[in-house]
Amino acid sequence: MSNSTLSFVRTTMEVAKAPPASTVGVVGWMRKNLFSSWINTALTLFAIYLVWIIVPPILDFTIFNATWTADDREGCLAGGHGACWAYVEAKFGQFIYGRYPVEERWRVNIVFAIMAIGTVTLAIPSVPYKKWNAIFMLVIFPILAFFLLVGGYFGLHHVETPLWGGLLVTLVVAITGIVVSLPLGVLFALGRRSEMPVVRMVSIIFIEFWRGVPLITVLFMASVMLPLFLPEGVTFDKLMRVLIGVALFSAAYMAEVVRGGLQAIGKGQYEGAQALGLPYWKTMNLIILPQALKLVIPGIVNTFIGLFKDTTLVLIVGLFDLLGAIQLSFTDPKWSTPMTSHTGYVFAAFGFFIFCFSMSRYSIFMENRLHTGHKR
Amino acid sequence: MAAQEPVGDGAETARVSLLYDPKVRALVAQVALILLVIWLGYSMVNNTLVNLEKQSIASGFGFLGTTAGFSIAPTLGTFIVDYAEESSYGSAFYVGLFNTLLVAFIGIILATIWGFILGVARLSNNWVIAKLSTVYIETLRNIPLLLQIFFWYFAVLRSLPNPRESVEFGANIVLNTRGLFMPRPLPEAGFGWVSIAILIGLVGTFFMRRWAHQRQESTGEQFPVFWTSVGLIVGFPILVFLVLGMPLDWQIPELRGFNFRGGMVIIPEFMSLLLALVLYTATFIAEIVRAGILAVSHGQSEAAHALGVRSGPTLRLVVIPQALRVIIPPLTSQYLNLTKNSSLAVAIAYPDLVSVFAGTVLNQTGQAVEILLITLAVYLTISIVTSVLMNWYNAKMSLVER
Fold first, then answer.
1. Which whole-number Å values give the CA distances from A255 to A247, A252, B10, B87, in the listed order?
2. Inter-chain contact B147–A229, Cβ cutoff 8 Å?
């Protein structure tokens, strides 16, 4: 019956031909991403040339030509023109604790340990008791750290702040800045969005004043002008004055971050709270701030990174933070070599980079995490 | 029944006590705040006056007229103000101000250019370029600026050769540990005509642009605006310069004793501050530029291509104007950051406002309050002026939207 003229009907798919060798694999990837046009090829070659100029000297200096063990400058000078890591090793205690008495350094270590555990558990989203942890870190820990570090009570030896230095000062300035600036910043952010004109005006002037001036002048103000503002008999030591300046300065930046969060909360939330008859502070505490603060966690972390980097400026008013302690150690004749300052700067850069980079990764991670809830 | 009283009457009886009236509460809170601020301000001023009297420091701005008696490293500021040791503290202030503005202005321009290059490079299809740019941005933005300034100043520029073994670039430009020395142009008689030619070029360009825009609006014909502008602003003055027989002489720096004399010098403090500021701020600008470009949806450039617009004009007329709207507000705050960060000059003694005025002058006179108030006022003014300018530009750019 079949009178079909079709002589052949394919019933199975033919096996696909392999793509041309030049479009797949390493070669294909390179053709697409590195040599797609003559401009791209030139750029690629230029970039490789740049890497070739920059990377080998850095590796030579930090690793291949470096001196890892030596007793003093002679050892490093004999070792060639690389980094003198032995010097960092010898000065490490000074970089971390400054001139904090050696027999009392365990107190600093305890503070560091509590801080590390507290912040890590606070940072990992799946660890429970966030609220209590936050209260501990923002309220109890600073008090505890104060008594442990300053001493003078409970049989602890009193350690004056001019003896503090290195990473200790860096962390004290940065953490105090953030702990004080968070509540102050929230207050000023709320003030800036207040319906009361005077409150709004005062908040705007405060915020814009501190954001408009450089931190250096704030530190100068704290160390030169602040003593004049205080009544007779009231004096603060230099670290305390710097802390006040840094806290007010970062409060203004924090206020702007928090304001961003407040603006992101829908009007319905405020209206819902009003409909329930909640007064202002309850609306803020129970409804608005928990949502707003969660939204601005990346912003807070970024402010903290900025603050952490800015703590280096305290060396200009004569406090020895991590960079200051390193800078100070260059003057030690025992380790003075042509490579000492390079080594010190590389070490400082590496130290700051580790802290700031990991925090910025965390901020990106939180941003992605927070985004998922708002994706439509 | 009883509940359905007339409304007005109900409102009368339901009147809240003064304690719970929001209006009264707001008034009380604000009055309390005003009183608090006044009290704080009063006690601060009062304490300051008492303390100053006790330290027998005379207050007032009279010190600005007193002879300074210290020298400042040669920069454009000292050149413009014509500063010498006999000059007053007031002129030292102007030197600092000029130097701050100088480093901020050049820094902003260079950081913008370098930041745009980095931002575009990070989005490049070229894998090596994109990764290189990413590594650069992530590294430099996570290292404190002060450390970078120290690195450039103490570790790099200090290890340059001394004046006797200077690096020579030809054309009498030499680099050594004292700075970058260049010939100084000395205008001769008739050079004023060249300045006038530049002015004519600028004015001409302005009117030419307006005319070209109007012509395109009415006839649709385009005019080579860019090349005509270049010709008017650069070409015309050069022509005048050549016709007048090149009325310009060069003062060449010469090695005398241990240092170069004459010519122009860019001091190492300026170079390291500028380098660090530009390299650091550019990383932030690069991220802003990247975000701005990514914010322009792909459909925009596709639509332009579909209309037959080529890729150059697509970028210039479609993508960049829209990206700029996202870029400008954060870019403004980076400009302000750069200006404020230029105060780190004090750490390496580049004679900027903070270093000269809030540093040296403050130490010599002890007029802490006045000097810091002036310094703060200057930075606040710079901040406000920059924000106003950028807001104006932003408003101008966002008009494109509608």
1. 12, 5, 43, 43
2. no
